[in-house]
Design a protein that fits this description.
The protein is mainly alpha-helical. It has a single domain, classed as Na+/H+ antiporter like fold (Up-down Bundle), CATH 1.20.1530.20. Helices cover about 70% and strands about 0% of the residues. The protein contains 19 helices and no strands. Helix 4 packs across helix 7. The N and C termini lie far apart (about 60 Å). The C terminus is likely disordered.
């Protein structure tokens, strides 16, 4: 057996267990577990107490966690919501986000805070769909007008941010033109794979086998989803693209072909159990282990970047929500703006790529992650309070116009 120690992985898994457990014991403390996981990683990591290190087992599981995080984010995409006015406003809003983000990046690059204005714009442009949906469900607004618009806008932002990050800032090398061609070829391959899977699902014989094996120890649907995830990640790497694009599109394909889940209602629950129960928490704790706050804490001029990045996040992602103010009303639009500005997983991913490519300093990356942590702590709580007020929306079950 290879000489590999699992002590650090055990410590990381223990942190992943204790974070939600502590929150469960203190229900009034409305803090997402992901925040505690990252903060615990910072405190216990090599840049602070030095109790946990990042060795090979931790790196491998964290990499799988990143893949599964993007896979589940893609699984949340409901293409059937993306139509008509909702889709037009979501796309227009993302374009406005890129413009505002680029202007912000140009201003901050002039003072030497960032090396790439576009990278900062992309980093600020995503929305944490996995955090936004539970907030809307808690408020009973996931199927309302404001809920449909927010989820659609977050879906477009997540997909576009992953695509642009992979296309322009891939660590795999190659020119932007070459990567554009590769993205096109990869998209064709993804579409063909989706059609093949959708066609195979119509086979009565294959459907019967899947139904018989789905809840046995074979867990055939879960295995098939994992194979698709790994295949798309491997193909994205072979095409010279970021692996996160492959993981995200794998989830989107599964979500599209698995729209009717009446015969296998526990399928997504099992996928989420695998992801959120083990792999994804390891990724977030490890992200905290990698985060060096020494530069921020050592210089007040560096520490001031955190609130400024938080304001930038609110402006860049929040302002475009007001394109829908006539449909939603001012209070619901403000709630939507706050939810759209809630972002953390993508910021963690984008900053790691930025540091790896030399386009972002570790201090800037740490400040952006801290701003993302604050957005998760503050913005959803305020949005939830606004949505729970009776006049928060002009309709609760209105279908989007086509």
């Amino acid at each position: 057996m290879p000489d590999v120690e699992f002590t650090n992985l055990f410590a990381v898994a223990l942190v992943a267990l204790l974070a939600p457990l502590l929150l469960g014991l203190a229900p009034r403390l409305r803090v997402p577990a992901v925040v505690l996981e990252i903060v615990a990683g910072i405190i216990l990591g090599p840049h602070a107490l030095g109790l946990i290190g990042i060795d090979l087992p931790v790196q491998i599981v964290a990499l799988l966690g990143l893949g599964f995080l993007l896979f589940l984010a893609g699984l949340e995409i409901d293409v059937h919501r993306l139509r008509g006015q909702v889709l037009r406003l979501a796309v227009l809003g993302y374009l406005v986000t890129l413009v505002l983000g680029t202007l912000t990046g140009l201003g901050l690059s002039a003072v030497g805070w960032v090396h790439s204005a576009l990278l900062l714009a992309v980093t600020l442009s995503a929305t944490s769909l996995g955090l936004v949906v539970p907030v809307l469900k808690d408020a009973g607004r996931s199927e309302s007008t404001v809920g449909q618009f927010t989820i659609a806008a977050a879906s477009v932002a997540d997909f576009a941010a992953v695509l642009v990050l992979s296309l322009v800032f891939s660590t795999e090398g190659g020119s932007a033109g070459e990567r554009l061609v590769m993205v096109g070829l990869f998209a064709v391959l993804v579409a063909v794979t989706g059609l093949v899977i959708a066609t195979a699902r119509r086979s009565q014989r294959l459907g019967g086998v899947l139904l018989r094996l789905q809840d046995t120890t074979a867990e055939i649907r879960v295995r098939a989803a994992v194979v698709l995830l790994v295949a798309f990640v491997a193909l994205a790497e072979q095409f010279g693209l970021e692996t996160i694009l492959g993981a995200f599109l794998a989830g989107a394909v599964v979500g599209l072909v698995d729209r009717d889940a009446t015969s296998h209602p526990r399928f997504r629950i099992k996928l989420e159990a695998l992801g959120y129960g083990f792999l994804i928490p390891v990724f977030f704790v490890t992200s905290g282990l990698r985060l060096d706050l020494g530069g921020l804490l050592g210089a007040p001029s560096a520490l001031v970047r955190v609130p400024l990045f938080l304001i930038a996040l609110l402006v860049v992602r929040g302002v475009p929500a007001y394109l829908a103010v006539r449909s939603l009303g001012p209070r619901a639009t403000t709630a939507t703006a706050l939810l759209q500005a809630t972002s953390l997983p993508f910021i963690v991913t984008a900053t790691q790529i930025g540091v790896a490519t030399g386009l972002m300093t570790p201090i800037t990356a740490a400040a952006l992650v801290c701003a993302g942590l604050l957005s998760v702590l503050v913005f959803p709580a305020i949005a939830l309070a606004l949505l729970k007020q009776p006049a928060a929306d002009r309709g609760t079950q209105v279908e989007p116009r086509t």
